[in-house]
Amino acid sequence: MKKLLTMLALATYLFSSVDINHANIKELSSLKGIGEAKAKSITLYIKYNGCFKDISELTKVKGIGQSFIKKNELNISILPCKKKGKMIKGI
Predict the structure, then answer these.
(1) Which H or E element spans position 1?
(2) What pTM does this model have?
């Protein structure tokens, strides 16, 4: 019974949080402090740099700082993904 409750709690947590690596702009915009522009910045960052491995890497996105992470750390999940960044020639 205890194992079942633990699994249920974990499933509830995972499904109620926003997975940064797989979220769309609408889902990202549901986070505190994220509007459409920052949501687009996050998706572009993933497109060109690959997936986040840790929540602290979000600070690499322009306009996202530690205060955003503190406000949203319970609402964010970082699930693994296979997206790799695209190389940009000339940069």
Answers:
(1) none
(2) 0.74
